[in-house]
């Protein structure tokens, strides 16, 4: 249609067929359609209240585009390998009397039921108190140090309480030379991570410390290291989303570990019990998927100007996020209570507000963000299959990139939405979709259900304000 | 009025654009028994309008709140009105886009996301001004040139956007850019003109529309019309977009000459831009609207002459002289007011009217466009003497659609002016083309007829002059609209300057 020579200026705009993206008055888009032009309309809504100044400032930051591209590249290039199983005192130098917990920093006074229950259980397990009452008194008196797992590059599901004697998986990102750790999974039902601390719970923790941990260590040391990223990529194509559905991943992990387990030094009874315990636990893999995602987000952290979220974590009271461009600062808001399906006679009033470091999976582009890969999960967390498909697709609106390895078959193997961008969350009001377990609100109850939850809105404008303050004039 | 039941409801976080809400309001107002209906975002201007309509808007109303105000003949009618609001709003939600099937992607929510989904090369942004900078940065960073229709964008942000755009090799047309034509695509308010070799660079929307329509009437086609925003040639912005636009047009094989349409530029910026044009070897002409300079029609005439084209006789239809007014059988001595009242939708057309009328009128003109503090009035304010109001000015469009889309404020004002014995002539503009009201003639002709009848009943004559910017190929059709307006008793001119001169000449003892 045009002459031989085409204008190269303005990226060839004057010589190319116009394709128009619009935001705002629908009538202008209609007028373009009337001219038979190709038009795509953004369904624009005002951003979160009072954020327009900070948004304009952060969007204008010349560092942002490259910083986010780098963060996304690092997040998706990260690899996770299970290299060892080590006790927390050796792995992260955890001192006797210090306890790690999930989520942002927390004081005992503000701790919720399940968090208190898990801390009481851990104090009992470490032999620092004789009775639950004694443990509680000491915790209330501030005898012990409490610290977020994230501050030691570790993650813990639900209450996420880690004490020095507990065994941790040790994962390494060879590309970025980072290490991350996570506790061993206790299975479902009455377990410490859901705030239960009766004898059955403490006895199991001792068995895990005395029997399971050493056997797993032998397995990894003799036949490892094991490629965890590879399992993550495969399990998404087998109907798992890596947060609340880990069935395929758990079986694949067991398959990797079995040869080393059955040839480990130990009684055949102990080995049989370790294999049975691991095989019976459909969340066996969660405690490896989480630190793998932690390694991915660690790689993306600390890039000046980047607006990518590198931590989402809850302590049962607060929900906290950290952002690549704002360093170690937490931006918190009151944790929401999940909505979903309940076990047995439990109901909504029994549920504790959102808890656990497991939202690191969504931060790394799986979990709720990969829900379309795991339609069966709606039977566990609620919603329906179209919801699962929509949830993943909605997350593309708030993420920087698509994961090259984590793919969703039903979406034509599109990569999962990865790298939550604070500015996009604030602009669209779309909050990250998290699939989660629900702990009972009363200490000692354990799990009451599973469901869907989002962060409180307040985290994101607060993070945006800090990003805006960090932009040079 | 107090006897009729009313309801005012505030809804948080229920945003819709002003054009959509105007349509909802109309739909609801048509409900039986509903006397008045306004569904609008609670901006300062809209709250003022609602208060003027006798509605009591809660003080906590904020610009992001949706306000639903109804007055009905009875409580039952009000209830029916509420139902109509619900179904109109629900209709918006189910308008094809909301219902996504299994596996269907939800609609994009940001400009960048939309651009990626369609591999767009051009963005049209018309979100409220305070949010426009964010969407525009997103578009620039996605590699799109932008037509930024939104107004109320601070000049510091404009500079940041244009610097980022230059770095990304894309163009920011705006802010407050109403008109652009890119390779045949009419963006915003734009007329349907023949393709040709004249490239327009426009720092003014309706100015560009006037120029492209005059060119079209002269048989001269346009290659592209690149908007740059009204402040681009001022000292602060320093011609950032103009220079980019000139470079692109210089490199465009379709374009052989360029006409820049602008308000008076900063002298240094003008010199700089002229240097740039020379360096590009570009044949650049200027249509600059300012005191002591030729009006747009004269500028187009010189441009045509310079290119060896004949200047045509511009379309004009003068109404017949008014018959003498007789009241109760006796001729009135004071049968016509003495003031010019110009009510415009096009900002540049209003500016030009100020300049052309100012040259020939003795008394000063008050206006919401006046720079002189003593002559500046709010667009909402009624004052004595000569008045020219731009209904498209920033203060008049906060949370409201542009008057080219939603003529209601101006229609009300026409009726108010007609009732004023001081008003000697009504000067109006009407701009056709894409983006503008699909059938503006009916409403305006009705208002003109009503205004003239009201004046006549009052014993006065009231000439009405319309500056009609448009082309025969516009969706509304120039001749059809001109016929309807002429039938209502108006004089109709394609040349805005000619319309202004004719209007002034209608004043009793008017300067000729």
Word description of this protein:
The complex is a heterodimer of chains A (473) and B (512). With 473 residues, chain A is α+β, with helices and mostly antiparallel strands. Helix content of chain A is 37%, strand content 20%. Chain A has 17 helices and 18 strands. Chain A has helices at 9-12, 26-34, 52-60, 64-77, 88-91, 113-125, 132-140, 199-223, 228-236, 247-262, 268-280, 286-299, 360-363, 378-381, 385-395, 422-428, 459-469, and strands spanning 19-23, 38-42, 81-87, 98-101, 145-148, 154-155, 167-173, 178-183, 226-227, 309-315, 318-323, 331-334, 339-342, 355-356, 399-408, 414-420, 434-439, 447-453. In chain A, helix 3 packs across helix 17 (459-469) and helix 10 runs antiparallel to helix 11 (268-280). Chain B is an alpha/beta fold and 512 residues long. Chain B has three domains: 6-93, Gyrase A, domain 2 (2-Layer Sandwich); 111-306, 3-Layer(aba) Sandwich (Rossmann fold); 316-506, 3-Layer(aba) Sandwich (Rossmann fold), CATH 3.40.50. Helix content of chain B is 37%, strand content 20%. In chain B, the strands form six sheets. A seven-stranded mixed beta sheet of chain B has the order 13-21-20-19-16-18-17, with helices on both faces. In chain B, strands 10-9-11-12 form a four-stranded parallel beta sheet, sandwiched between helices. In chain B, strands 1-3-2 form a three-stranded antiparallel beta sheet. Chain B starts with 5 loop residues before the first strand and ends in a 6-residue tail after the last helix. Mean pLDDT of chain B is 91; it is low at 94-100 and 329-333. Chains A and B meet through helix 1, strand 1, helix 2, strand 2 and helix 3 of A and helix 1, helix 4, strand 4, helix 5 and helix 6 of B.
């Amino acid at each position: 249609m045009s002459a031989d020579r085409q204008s190269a200026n303005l990226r060839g705009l004057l010589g190319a067929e116009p394709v128009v993206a619009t935001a705002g008055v629908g009538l202008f888009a209609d007028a373009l359609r009337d001219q038979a032009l190709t038009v795509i309309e953004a369904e624009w809504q005002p951003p979160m209240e009072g954020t327009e100044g900070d948004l304009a400032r952060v969007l204008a930051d010349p560092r942002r585009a490259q910083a986010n591209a780098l963060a996304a590249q690092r997040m998706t290039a990260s690899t996770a390998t299970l290299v060892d199983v080590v006790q927390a005192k050796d792995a992260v130098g955890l001192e006797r009397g210090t306890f790690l917990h999930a989520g942002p920093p927390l004081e005992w006074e503000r701790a919720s039921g399940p968090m208190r229950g898990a801390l009481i259980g851990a104090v009992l397990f470490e032999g620092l108190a004789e009775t639950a009452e004694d443990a509680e008194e000491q915790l209330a008196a501030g005898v012990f140090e409490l610290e977020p797992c994230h501050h030691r590059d570790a993650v813990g599901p639900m209450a996420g309480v880690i004490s020095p004697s507990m065994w941790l998986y040790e994962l390494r990102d060879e590309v970025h030379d980072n290490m991350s750790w996570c506790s061993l999974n206790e299975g479902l039902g009455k377990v410490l991570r859901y705030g239960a601390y009766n004898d059955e719970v403490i006895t199991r923790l001792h068995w895990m410390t005395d029997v399971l941990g050493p056997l797993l260590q032998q397995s990894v040391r003799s036949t490892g290291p094991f490629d965890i990223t590879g399992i993550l990529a495969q399990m998404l194509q087998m109907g798992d989303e890596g947060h609340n559905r880990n069935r395929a991943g758990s079986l694949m992990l067991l398959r990797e570990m079995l040869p080393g387990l059955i040839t480990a030094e130990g009684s055949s009874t102990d080995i049989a019990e370790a294999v049975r315990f691991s095989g019976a636990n459909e969340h066996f893999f969660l405690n490896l998927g989480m630190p793998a995602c932690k390694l991915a987000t660690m790689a993306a952290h600390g890039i000046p100007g980047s607006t990518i979220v590198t931590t989402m974590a809850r302590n049962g009271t607060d929900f906290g996020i950290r952002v690549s461009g704002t360093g170690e600062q937490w931006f918190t808001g009151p944790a929401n209570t999940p909505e979903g399906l309940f076990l047995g006679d439990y109901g909504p009033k029994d549920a504790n507000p959102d808890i656990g470091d497991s939202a690191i999976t969504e931060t790394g582009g799986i979990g709720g963000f990969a829900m379309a890969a795991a339609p069966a999960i709606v039977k566990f967390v609620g919603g329906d299959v179209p919801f699962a498909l929509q949830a993943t697709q909605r997350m593309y609106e708030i993420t920087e990139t698509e994961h090259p390895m984590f793919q969703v078959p039903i979406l034509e193997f599109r990569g999962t939405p990865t790298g939550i961008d604070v500015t996009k969350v604030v602009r669209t009001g779309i909050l990250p979709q998290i699939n989660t377990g629900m702990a009972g609100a009363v200490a000692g109850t354990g799990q009451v259900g599973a469901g869907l939850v989002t962060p409180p809105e307040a985290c994101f404008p607060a993070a945006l304000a800090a990003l805006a303050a960090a932009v040079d004039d | 009025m107090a006897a009729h039941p009313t309801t005012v409801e505030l809804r948080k976080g229920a945003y819709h654009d002003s054009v959509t809400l105007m349509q909802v309001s109309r739909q609801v107002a048509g409900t039986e028994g509903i006397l008045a209906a306004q569904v609008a975002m609670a901006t300062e201007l809209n709250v003022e309008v609602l208060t003027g309509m006798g509605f009591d808007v809660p003080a906590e109303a904020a610009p992001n709140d949706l306000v639903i105000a109804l007055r009905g003949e009875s409580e039952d009618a009000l209830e029916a009105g509420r139902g109509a609001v619900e179904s109109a709003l629900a209709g918006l939600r189910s308008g094809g886009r909301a219902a996504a099937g299994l596996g269907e992607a939800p609609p994009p929510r940001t400009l960048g996301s939309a651009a990626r989904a369609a591999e767009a090369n051009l963005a049209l942004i018309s979100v409220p001004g305070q949010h426009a900078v964010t969407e525009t940065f997103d578009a620039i960073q996605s590699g799109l040139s932008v037509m930024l229709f939104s107004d109320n964008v601070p000049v510091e942000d404009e500079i940041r956007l244009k610097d980022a755009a230059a770095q990304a090799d894309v163009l920011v047309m705006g802010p407050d850019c109403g008109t652009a034509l890119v390779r045949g695509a009419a963006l915003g308010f734009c007329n349907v003109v023949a393709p040709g070799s004249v490239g327009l660079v426009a720092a003014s929307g309706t100015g560009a529309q006037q120029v492209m329509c005059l060119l079209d009437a002269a048989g001269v086609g346009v290659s592209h019309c690149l908007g740059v925003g009204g402040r681009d040639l001022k000292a602060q912005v320093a011609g950032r977009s103009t220079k980019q636009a000139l470079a692109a047009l210089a490199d465009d094989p379709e374009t052989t000459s360029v006409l820049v349409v602008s308000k008076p530029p900063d002298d240094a910026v003008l010199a700089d831009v002229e240097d740039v044009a020379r360096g590009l070897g570009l044949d650049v002409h200027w249509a600059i609207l300012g005191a002591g300079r030729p009006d747009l029609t004269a500028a187009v005439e010189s441009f045509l002459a310079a290119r060896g084209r004949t200047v045509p006789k511009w379309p004009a239809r003068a109404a017949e002289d008014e018959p003498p007014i007789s009241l109760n059988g006796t001729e009135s001595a004071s049968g016509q007011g003495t003031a010019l009242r110009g009510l415009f939708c096009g900002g540049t057309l209003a500016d030009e009217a100020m300049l052309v009328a100012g040259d020939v009128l003795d008394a000063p003109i008050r206006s919401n466009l006046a720079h002189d503090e003593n002559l500046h009035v709010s667009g909402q304010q009624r004052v004595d003497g000569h008045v020219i109001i731009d209904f498209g000015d920033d203060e008049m469009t906060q949370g409201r659609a542009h008057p080219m889309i939603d003529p209601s404020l101006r229609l009300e004002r026409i009726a108010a002016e007609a009732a004023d014995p001081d008003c000697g002539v009504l000067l109006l503009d009407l701009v056709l083309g894409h983006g503008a009201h699909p059938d503006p003639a009916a409403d305006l002709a009705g208002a003109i007829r009503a205004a003239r009848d009201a004046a006549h009943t009052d014993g006065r004559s009231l000439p009405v002059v319309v500056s009609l910017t448009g082309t025969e190929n516009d969706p509304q059709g120039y001749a059809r609209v001109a016929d309807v307006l002429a039938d209502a008793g108006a004089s109709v001119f394609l040349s805005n300057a000619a319309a202004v001169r004719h209007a002034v000449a209608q004043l009793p003892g008017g300067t000729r």
